[in-house]
Amino acid sequence: MTTPVPGPATDPDSAAASQAEISDEIASIAKEYVAAGVVEISPRHDYPPYRSSILRHPTKAPQQVDPEGIELWAPVFGQLDVDPLESDLTIQHRGEPVGERMIVTGRVTDGEGRPVRRQLVEIWQANAGGRYIHQRDQHPAALDPNFTGMGRCLTDDDGHYRFTTIKPGPYPWKNHHNAWRPAHIHFSLFGTEFTQRLITQMYFPGDPLFALDPIYQSIVDQDARDRLVATYDHDVTTHEWSTGYRWDIVLTGSHRTVFEEDEQ
Amino acid sequence: MTAPGIEQTPTPGQTIGPFFGFALPYDGGGELVPPTRPDAIRFHGRVLDGAGVPVPDALVELRQTAPDGSVPRAAGSLQRDGYTFTGWGRAATDRTGHFQFSTLRPGGGSPFFALAVFARGLTDRLFTRAYLPGAAPAQWPSLEAAADDRGFVFDIRLQGEAETVFLSYR
Fold first, then answer.
1. Residue A25 is inside which H or E element, if any?
2. Which of A177, B7, B16, B145 is most buried, judged by most C-beta within 10 A?
3. Is residue A71 scored above 90 in pLDDT?
4. What is the per-residue pLDDT for A132?
5. If you classify domain B20-157 with CATH, what class do you get?
6. Are A96 and A147 in contact (CB under 8 A)?
């Protein structure tokens, strides 16, 4: 592996490359991946088309270890931690936010298909115009005084989560010239063990920006990428109120036996 | 819907991105115990990139045993009451790439702080351990935190010659 040289190419805000150059890099990595014929289910840490990854990815393979003691136990969150109202991102201010109201729901399971019960799910997102409330976001789209874009909930006894929110818009960023992120919602998840911690992004079906986006494409396997795309579900959609999307999340396998869990 | 017992392929991770600051960090996130408590220690360090430049937009999460070596399984990390030790905390790095936790000394056989690291530019989370001085296994001397006047210091180097040893769980 070569050591990257710091310079303009690694300045996340330099926006030096064109979309065509980025797309060429994405295509050539995809071609090598298919030729190698080894399935990869996680994003690559080393993915140069995503410029700010260049100096922020480890160059050595991780050390394989058996989880020990504390790593076998996720933090516990309870009713005190999360107000049930926090799962509705449309009621955090005095008025209705602008945009398409939608419900996002799904189930969190572990690698063996067991539900992750009563565990914390956190989301954050841009508003309908593609603007984050975060100060660093200087994209000149309107802030919505009625939308913050952050929510939390606990999964139910069968691992289900449910949020009411607004469909986020796509937004420009400075990875390269005319770079746009596909619309997405950030998700933060815990399992039953520390080892299962996951932060990821949920996307919407058929987004025309998928092929152009080096963050989405940092997962080089198409089937793996598809796992981040929600499904429109008319049974979740409600009459004269909101559209509905379904997205299930699978965490890595757990190491503790069910017996140990029952001992709680 | 999938039946229990059948192995499922995990959902891939994605970068935490640049805009988590208004959503994930929260008041008291890094204070597992109040810093004024007599037995409170500080666990802190910096997150650095491959050029040695501090990473101001990283998030570090910590999980640890209690001083007696037990695994804390109490709720309340998001709404701390000042007395319950949950053994979990979350701290974003500041402008200088520095993160800090106010906590208790972990106990047990080979005590360590289990860490999960996220950052803009980091496509997926990283795991590592910061062992107390003298507790690291022989093959990972670099995974030892250093003692300082109020606790322990441990820098996380995402890349480079002194790159942190990151872990992958079997």
1. helix A19-36
2. B16
3. yes
4. 93
5. mainly beta
6. no
Read off the CATH number of the domain in which A180 is found: 2.60.130.10
Q: What are the boundaries of each domain within chain B?
A: 20-157
Chain B touched by A114 (CB under 8 Å): yes
Dump strand ranges (E) for chain A.
63-65, 101-109, 120-125, 150-154, 160-166, 171-173, 179-181, 184-189, 198-203, 231-232, 243-246, 249-250
- The span from the CA of B50 to the CA of A210, in Å, is 29
Q: What is the pLDDT of residues A151-186, one digit of tens each?
A: 999 999 999 999 999 999 999 999 999 999 999 999
pLDDT band at A13; cut points 50, 70, 90: low
In a domain, A100, yes or no: yes
The helices-and-strands tally (H runs, E runs) of chain A is: 3, 12
Range of the domain at A169: 73-253
- Cross-chain residue pair A186–B22, CB shorter than 8 Å: no
* B28–chain A nearest CA distance, Å: 12
Q: Which of A26, A40, A70 to mutate to test the interface with B (most CBs of B within 10 A)?
A: A70
Q: For chain B, which ranges sit under pLDDT 50?
A: 1
Chain B contact for A146 (CB, 8 A cutoff)? no
Instruction: Specify the pLDDT at position B3.
Output: 55
Nearest Cα to Cα of residue A198 among A74, A60, A57, A65: A74
Query: Per the structure, how many domains does chain A have?
Result: 1
**pTM, entire model:** 0.94
Q: Is residue A234 part of a domain?
A: yes
SS (H, E, C) chain B: CCCCCCCCCCCCCCCCCCCHHHCCCCCCCCECCCCCCCCCEEEEEEEECCCCCECCCEEEEEECCCCCCCCCCCCCCCCCCCCCCCCEEEEECCCCCEEEEEECCCCCCCCEEEEEEEECCCCCCEEEEEECCCCCCCCCHHHECEEECCEEECCEECCCCCCCCCEEEC
Evaluate whether residue A223 is within a structural domain. yes
CA triple A124-B7-A236, angle to 5 deg: 45
pLDDT per residue over A199-235, tens digit each?
A: 999 999 999 999 999 999 999 999 999 999 999 999 9
Does residue A150 sit within a domain? yes
Whether residues A80 and B8 touch (CB distance < 8 A) is answered with no
Mode of pairing for the β-strands spanning B146-148 and A160-166: unpaired
